[in-house]
Amino acid sequence: MSLFATLGRAAALALLLVAGPSLADIAPSDAQRHTAQEVANSLLHGHYSDVELDDDWSQQAFEHYLDVLDSQRAYLLRSDIDEFNDLRTQLDEAVLDGELVPAYALYDRYQQRVEARLEWLLARLDAGLDFTFDDDQRMILDRSETPWPNDEAELDAYWTKRLKNSALELSINREEAEAEDAAAVEDDAAPDEEDAASDENVVEEKEKTIEETLRQRYEGQLNRLRQTNAEDVFDLFMTAVTDTIDPHTDYFSPRESEDFDIQMKLSLEGIGALLQSDGEYVKVSSLVAGGPAEKAGALKPADRIIGVGQEGEEIVNVVGMRLDEVVDMIRGPKGSVVRLEIVPGQAMDMTRSKVIEITRDTVKLEDQAAQSEVVEIQRDDGTHRVGMIKVPAFYVDFDAWQAGEEDYRSTTRDVAKEIEKLRDKDIEGIVLDLRNNGGGALQEANSMLGLFIDRGPTVQVRDARGRINLYGDTESGTLYDGPLVVLVNRLSASASEIFAGAIQDYGRGLVVGSNTFGKGTVQTLNELDLGQIKLTRAKFYRISGDSTQNRGVAPDIQFPSLVDPETIGESSLDNALGWDSVRKVQYRQYGDPRRYLETLRERHRQRADDHPNFHYLERHAALAERLREQHTSVSLNREQRRRETQAREDEQLALENERREALGLDPLENWIDSRNQDEEDESQPLERAPLTEAAEILLDFSRLESGIQFADHASRSE
What we know:
Elements: H1 3-7, H2 9-19, H3 30-46, H4 55-70, H5 78-83, H6 91-97, H7 101-127, E1 138-140, H8 152-186, H9 193-207, H10 210-226, H11 230-243, E2 250-252, H12 254-264, E3 273-278, E4 281-287, H13 292-296, E5 304-310, E6 315-317, H14 323-330, E7 337-343, E8 354-359, E9 371-379, E10 382-390, H15 398-402, H16 411-423, E11 430-433, H17 442-449, E12 456-463, E13 468-473, E14 484-488, H18 495-506, E15 510-513, E16 521-527, E17 532-541, E18 557-558, H19 597-610, H20 612-630, E19 633-635, H21 638-662, H22 671-680, H23 685-705, E20 715-717
Parallel strand pairs: 10-11, 11-14, 14-15, 15-18
Antiparallel strand pairs: 1-19, 2-17, 3-4, 4-5, 5-6, 5-7, 7-8, 9-10, 9-20, 12-13, 12-17, 16-17
Keywords: Hydrolase, Protease, Serine protease, Signal
GO biological process, one term: proteolysis
Signal peptide: 1-24
């Protein structure tokens, strides 16, 4: 019997309270006060923007600090906000003078409220849950814009609904899992020994009552809350301070700085996913090219992680957990397995969770290397061959380069090798696939442009003083001067946007796909007394003078986006710097592909309407946007919840089966089958559709450049 069981809940909670730091212990140190002043000085004198730490900024910082602490208005009361109202115009002096006590006092109040709420939840569980799930109650999903609660009774009413919703989600999830298990038994899907061992943990999890599962969740949150120290509070407050300036300016605590250095040396293993906080959830922002998660294929951008478990252990619920804690749980030794409970990004209900497994590994340079293939397009006049080069990242082996090795790896060198390979394969043009390429080494984007242009400027960089540095290709000659199309999407960022924008400005080729991410800023790391500050110091501009910041690169021909631009991209981030422009530089255009855009867009439109995969992409994007706009609350009635979830999934399933029918494939029975089919289909038809269409556009473009007119739009993409 555990010590907690022996003592009883009241005594156990008292023991925890004594064991953890008291509120009085959480006070700023002299080093933290000095570091706050260093941060303020960095923002005032080193940031790209003309930062003023005044009363207006203080009000923004105050609101952002509240959002960092309690974005869903779930703990603090209106009276708490009123009590600390003087802070609205005092945070500027607090940071400049290093007087952090008021900010820590606000955190103390927040901690008291959270602690009391968790104890309230545990008391409710001790009394037994008596929810019937048969009334007409609904729960609002996003409370970030609602007024602060007036009293405890108002919060009790909200948390009763939230507790009820958590219990309902667990109940429905278990019913769905049992149904899937029964279906697996009917299919005689006998697990192997390894799966059976893993399943023992799943059985243990399922045998817990809903009350036990929720109790474990809330006790875990309470334990973590009581382990909070002054460094944690300082990290939260400094993050609120820097995020108020722009989303890429950030404070790194000493621990975060150490982790960052380890990551840069690729000596810390994980799954290769960039995560971000999304309310009380952890959301996948993007996947590292060539990383374990991308290779496994089960985790996608916009998926939410609600549980993490180690191999052979139970899954721990991470809803409401801090981002850095979740990251620590996901990391582990190379070759070990981490189990993630996720809710797919396209799911509109948290009852649609599933468990996936990913084997941890390091991201090797060769996994990010450019690779080529030849795609054959069947048209009425025969077979046409188009070269495809996938560029996952802009990389360079800095260690080998600094050591003077002649054959060091880099994006430019690898792409050059792939171009040489394609020369011997009778291709009619090249499509450069920069989808999901989040950027990397700026000099590689610059030097790779030199493979396609003969000298000239490529990008402008303006610093905080307004000084503009012009970068460009200084080597004469090109490696490839044939027809070129660059394929991008919402996850193409930074260096990818510089490359695509330059190709567009030079008229060297066409850019197709969806709008890019829109990150057009440059950051540097500066050492502080405690930790580091990542500071936005400069901004990218295209040679046309336009910034890529916020707006990204707009393709010449638009494809539907597989990710929601309202939740992914620079424009979705709070306090993102705006778009602007500088003076255009002198450069020689290679041609004017845009004079063909009307014809190219018309032929693209005809193919998109006729091709099942591409037609699906367009309709799926429109459906996802409509469902997202409609889904603002959830029913707490079990049958109504099922009906609403089923109705949404039926729409998605009908769309998928329409696509399958057009392709001559068997229809699927339910949305779960559709989701599993996406993961198991190695041909990735929805990923391939934009690539094939980019090849079609290249062939049309090449034909128009040659002066050949179209009699019709007949083509058959394989």
